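User: Hi! I'm working on a homework problem where we have to compare a predicted structure to a textbook description. Could you give me the structure for the chain below?
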Amino acid sequence: MNNYTPFLKFKTAEIGALKALKDAELEAVTPFFDLATRKDITDEDVKKTIIKGVRKYELNFKNSNGFYIDDFDIDDSMRINGSIVYEFLIQTFQEIDFIPVIGLDRTTQRINSVFNPLIISDTLAIRLNQEDFISYTLIEDELAELLERADSQYSKFHLLLDCRLCIDSGVVDLSTKLIQLIQAISSDHHFEKIIISGSSIHASVAEILPVSSEALITRKECNIFQMVTQELGDRFGFGDYTVISPNYSDADIPKSALRKVMTAKVIYSYEDKHHFLRGGAIETHPRGAKQYDDMCLTLTSYVFYRGKAYSVGDEYIDTKSNGIGVDALPHSIGKYLINAHMTFMINDY
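Assistant: Happy to help. Predicted structure tokens:
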């Protein structure tokens, strides 16, 4: 589809998935990156992620269509070299034309950070969440004040209406709120781009299906987007969190113990659906990591599987279905599942 925005966490698997896109596909998207968090994360951890992020950009995406970056999941109290995280990020990325992101729910320091002469971009993204969708009246003055101030530095504005985890939300209710909000905001302000995003994937796969089973879920974010566009037209962009939950955080489990507790899973997207296949714990299941081969073989037998020539991710699924190559593991298969999802969303959704 046109104007698709993948929301990612700047993880190695996601960077690999983007890199594996065809040149024209990569040029068609402006990815949105959130810095990932985890329990007991330190300022040094975040600092390393940001510094590595610049290197990843320079190696892989200098010819891409830009990117957004936010620190939504990072605790506001964290400091790097005495500065808030986003100030350090801006200093580190100062020679890169990224799109800065701000929200109405941020601290004063965080809001002030996007008014920094080191920022090259002429575009500012304003990210609203479900709490902001309740009533335009409640956010009207705050939004107007932010945009008026931003006019001194930015000439373009993008509005990101991020439903985040919406699987437990009512589609009609949330769509109605978005329609009313968009109508009200658009009567007062102009945005070059409006993106509606969300996800139907819980952080824990156990909330979706039990071990050794399959499940099909309808992607509510797709239903919400469709209802909004039916009412207001097709001028909007659509974003999702690919096959990762917006509430994802890095595992606090030592890598040596991952095989004991993590279950094998494969997620494949088609139409407005996610198809889940889940196995057992890799170390204790009789098939171990070979479960991925079994699940990929099952997946390739379904009519919705798009074939090995469709994407790098689909080719990998076909390869594993034939038991070829090094065993898949949770940290290695993610790249290919994300790539298969993004390729579908860019070309055929």
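For your comparison, note the following. The two ends are 5 Å apart (CA to CA). The first strand starts at residue 4 and ends at 8. Good luck with the assignment!
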